[in-house]
Amino acid sequence: MRRALAAASLLLTTVARQGTAQSAAPDARLAPGVPHVLATERASHIRDVRYALSLDVTRPDSALGTVVVRFTQRAAHEVILDFRGLAVTQVVANGRSLSVSEPALWNRAHLRIPASHARAGENAITVTFASPIAAAGASIIRSRDAADGEDYLYTLLVPSDANLLFPCFDQPDLKARVTLSITAPARWAVLANGAATRADTAVSGVTHHFKPTQPISTYLIAFAAGPYMSVSRSQVISANTAPVDVRMLLRRSRLQEAESDTLIAMNTQALRWLGDWFGVPYPFGKYDFLLAPVFPFGGMEHPGAVFYNEQSFIYRERPTISQTLGRQATIYHEVAHQWFGDYVTMRWFDDLWLKEGFATYMAAKMQADISPSANAWKTFYLNNKPVAYGTDATAGTTPVWQSLGNLEQAKSNYGAIVYNKAPGVLRQLNYLVGDAAFQQGVRRFLTRHAYGNATWRDLLRAVGGAADRDLTAWGTQWILRPGMPIVEQAVTSANGRITQLALTQRPAQPLISGPAAWPMRVSVLLYYTDARAVRIPVEMTANRTIVTAARGLKTPAFVFANDGDHGYAIVLPDDASVQWIERNVGTVRDDLLRAMLWGALWDLVREAQLSPSRFAAAALRELPNERDEQIAATLTGRIALALGRYLSDAASDSLLPVFERVLLAGARDTTLGYGQRKSQLDAFIRAATSPAELARIDLWLDADSAAGLPLRAPTRWAIVTRLTANAHPGAQERFRKESVRDSTGEGKRLAFVAGAAVPGVAAKQAYYARWFGDSTLNEEWVTSSLRAFHDPEQAALTQQFVVPSLDTLPWIQKNRRIFFLGAWLSAAIGGQNSAESLQQIDAWLSAHPALGLDLRRKVLQSRDELERTVRIRAQYTRTSN
Ligand SMILES: [Zn+2]
């Protein structure tokens, strides 16, 4: 195994060198970022990397550091380190100083140590440097607590910011043992991947020393420093090892609000369950987690030092089921990464899906096993499939495996394809090979590549080996090929018996995917109102599959070709099934099936095959009877979309009062669970439009309750935002009062969001300028405010910001974190619904032929929904229904 990989790397190196020699162009390896050619070359000759990294974070805007990089190499090869921080002040290679004023030494992207200063065997390179600390755009994020004025720091290096923090080999397959020491102000606590060993008082503060880590990738290195408080519990995480202190760190000002015992217990439960399932006990010794303030992600899986998003982990009001399940899924996801991502890591970020897909899939598997009554696969379907299909059916889709020429572009590889499609593809793989072979294959994969790196081919080899099945063709279709299938059902019957049931596959985007069929195993459901359902396993291998086992069976009420959600496809039922589903979906007791049937109706709307008014009518009829909180919330969201986007203005105006009535009645319905009432209340606040309804929510602020439910922040802020967006009389005064009432850090963030909703040109322009010009503004605040700024009801006002928003994409790609660009685009384009805006975006795309393919795809992904909106509106405004 090892030999084969080394040989492959050498071959690539040779090819790369030839490429360099043939042209007089600058050395491609030294380009900004981390070119893949550089990473491949380094991986072929560098081994056994260790970083001893000392950082002083006592200054407000920069960290001063020294790193000793130790490694071995076979020959005295030139050494290239990656670094794009603020300054390099000293470089010593194997005891010999290099002149830092020499431009050839540091080009602000890489440090180049000539072969004359390198050695065969053990090398030690010491670099003294400075790197930035800032609210945004730095690898050390600083956030100031509005409650007590304290500063809190934490790092976030994924995917390509380790080289902004310190000189290193910034690629996932040069794993290193990292020994950190951090000098911080005297009262501060410091958390890092490794266990703390001792603390020394120095001149500028206290230096905290940590044990060397296991071999980890650079993007997983992490520390946090600040006056954090901690809560620790001794926990048994494996039957065969001693108890471990599971420790939570958080800001002092939020200590009282956090459910520390619950959060520690959930992390522990995941560590234990996953260790058992993988057959590998937790591989990193100590386990701490941090609730990171204004964190731009849901969580980040640093080994031994997981970071979670504080604001989604501490509830300021009673949470809904979706919120608590979401928090649990985030914990399970990040803990699953300790094995998938941290213990075995993708070789390069082209295989990002491998870790993200697995973490989400394993989180659902764990949830299904630990709490069977929670119906984890329904949550999995609702949270992943519509999002995945919503991207994968667009002209901007990519394969699950995404080629990546430079780490600098790795941010573009994040999105629905790796987070939502990849787990769906793994669910299909699990169903194809069966539970036992899937688990056995995964265990083999983890054992074979322990503390190392692997690719998707290694995974399919391991799972295929366990299943005794060659998965090469399967991988080609599902991992390397972009796009997804649409499956259409055709049923013919005679005398009450099925004469033929056919499933036809076609690609959602034939120009991108090509015509071939995706191999897929599904369970086809024949549903009867007066008899037991029939389920037929079907393996589709061609574009047309006849379900022979269905012939002669009694004609069912409806057919559904993806029972249990094992397949990955948009399933469009046949007309007879659609008619039954539209009328009777509420009578289907199986929650997952009912969720999927609503999904199928919605997909028909989005394919412009079912009118949005028919969907809205069925959904408004069933919503008051729906007893599943998550399905009710999904239906509510879809009715809002149908009314806000797809229906003609006249149709929407006539249905809106009905929608408002249904939501308000639902919020007041004491026979419903709290979460369902609360989510209907939230939807009512978002939908309130008429002066009477706006006046109603305005009065709720005085009453401190709404529809019989207590009214707290952040719901109070949602009302203020809604009043602001509609310029309701007195909205400014409400804003002022609420800012006084809720002066917490969270309150300040939500006030910033509300301000973005002000419907005036000057106000919008001021916000837009501040997003870019205010260096104290945290990135997460900007992200939070995007939706309110681009409120779809203010489309005419915000249309002028669409082109500037597109123009700034290259800057955003370079300077903002992973999920920002997607949020930016979906808010800016999603805030529009007219053919004119669509033309504007298309004209911009035509005028920018040199736009990077990754950015073009991101625009196309967001453009798709606008294009559908325009198509649906045109079609169903023309015809009466
Ligand atoms: Zn993840």
Helix fraction?
A: 40-55%
Oligomer: single chain
Any low-confidence stretches, pLDDT <50, length ≥5?
1-23
Structural class: alpha+beta
Strand content: 15-25%
Instruction: Give the biggest sheet.
Output: 12 strands, mixed
Task: Sum up the overall morphology in one term.
Answer: globular
Describe the protein.
- Mean pLDDT is 95; it is low at 1-23.
- With 881 residues, this protein is an alpha+beta fold.
- The N and C termini lie far apart (62 Å).
- Helix 7 (352-370) runs antiparallel to helix 8 (376-392).
- It is built from 31 helices and 30 strands.
- Helix content is 45%, strand content 20%.
- The radius of gyration is 28 Å and the shape is globular.
- The strands form 7 sheets. Strands 1, 2, 4, 5, 7, 8, 9, 10, 11, 12, 13 and 14 form a 12-stranded mixed beta sheet that branches.
- Zinc ion (ZN) binds at residues 301, 333, 337, 356, 359.
- Zinc ion (ZN) binds next to helix 6 and helix 7.
Give a brief rundown of this model.
This protein is an alpha+beta fold. The longest helix has 26 residues, at 853-878.
